[in-house]
Amino acid sequence: MNTVSTLKNLPIALVLGLALLQSASAQTWTLMDETFTQSMKEIEFFDENTGIVSRGYAMNTTSDGGTSWGSDIDFTWTVNALKYTGGSTLFLGTGNGTIFKSVDGGANWSQIGGYIVSDIRSMAFNGSNGIVVDNNCKIAWTSNGGDSWTAIPSDDLCGNLSRLDHVDMPSSTVAYAGGNNGYMFKSTDGGQTWTAITSLPAEFDDMSGMSFPTTEVGYITGSVMNENTALVLKTTDGGANWTDISAGLTQSISDIFAVNATTVYVGAGGNKIYKSTDGGDNWAVDYTHPVCTQCAIKEFDLGGTTLYALFDNGGEHKKIVKLANATVGINDTPDQNTFSVRPNPSNGIFSITFQKAPVQLDVYDVLGNLLFSKGNLSLTNVQLDLSHLSKGIYVMKAFDGTGASTQRLVID
User: How far apart are CA 198 and CA 189, in angstroms?
Assistant: First the structure.
């Protein structure tokens, strides 16, 4: 059944009720049966079922949500980063600093340019803008969908004193990058220029994860300098200030993923996935690996509404787990910044009245793709023009720095 097409024909009240009913159903992690011969490095899903995993010099694709995987796609260099950008288009970054593009879901690849940076560690895209970071504190950016890249010398950032392991791009202009030795940077022009974030605690050291669900709200994980102690930090003002939300997490944290501003998952080094539904104020174990006691989550990835997590201890327990409907019902949170939307449904033009400002306003499609983002709206009355979007259901999220409110929008 085509759920999206069916929902388009339902009254908005019934749509909201259906989403709440779905969110009330049991949400459990499924341990997939695949066992690869090599350690897994990256996982990237296009939707709930279609995805690709890298394993050093080889990759494999799936079309059934990881139940089965295709034969090896051999590669000349190690595949360190994978990023899906829409349609059947994928990009990958290699251990020797080259970038490749596929337009057929990963079956065939073509190199883009030469040696753009050094050992690529992470990659992010938002619209036609993209960014890669490497192990020598060098960054490269694109503004034409990855067809060409411009590198920023490491001397302009941290001068080879750090590697950059993580980059996230919550909008087409705002991006964050970070790595070891406490280095973190922010860009507001799509990665062309960067400013150092100097507000991190002095004891924050090796960054192990980063997730920014909005341009202002973000989460990073790392360790306390010279200690094997987890440190999870949260910002609600674009990195100007940080709050320690590590309480309740006793093990080292290997990665973090924020579904939205308040629902967050972290992978703990001992074999657990923790979840918070209140922005990190409280944590609870959401999944425990049944066999491996020393497995780390290498990466989270959201495919449609299904959240995938990659367990790997470098040995025999190389496993993928998935959580279906991870985003269903999450957007139906109690209003903390109550607002009204009129008309709804509409032809794409919505008038929104907030009780307080400023707010961060984001609009997503039903697969969780960010379509519109606007921060620091100082007015309590806003006209939102989404008339360029196709008919259907969308989710609008407003965040005022203390809580998130959401509303489903219907364009008919």
Answer: 19
Task: Count each helix (H run) and each strand (E run) in the chain, helices first.
Answer: 2, 35
- 50 found inside a domain: yes
Instruction: List the one residue out of 373, 381, 386, 382 whose CA is nearest residue 347.
Output: 386
Contacts of 135 by beta carbon, 8 Å cutoff, 6+ apart: 118, 119, 121, 163, 164, 165
Q: Report the C-alpha gap between 52 and 254 in whole angstroms.
A: 21
Residue 86: how many other CB atoms lie within 10 Å: 11
* Residue of higher predicted confidence among 164 and 252: 164
Q: Average the pLDDT over 279-297 and give the result.
A: 86
Q: How far is CA 27 from CA 31, 137, 286, 300, 307, in A?
A: 13, 40, 10, 17, 11
Predicted pLDDT at 154: 76
C-alpha dihedral over 379, 173, 185, 238, to 10 degrees? 20
Neighbours of 262 (CB within 10 A): 20
Question: In this structure, is residue 292 part of a structural domain?
Answer: yes
CATH of the domain at 162: 2.130.10.10
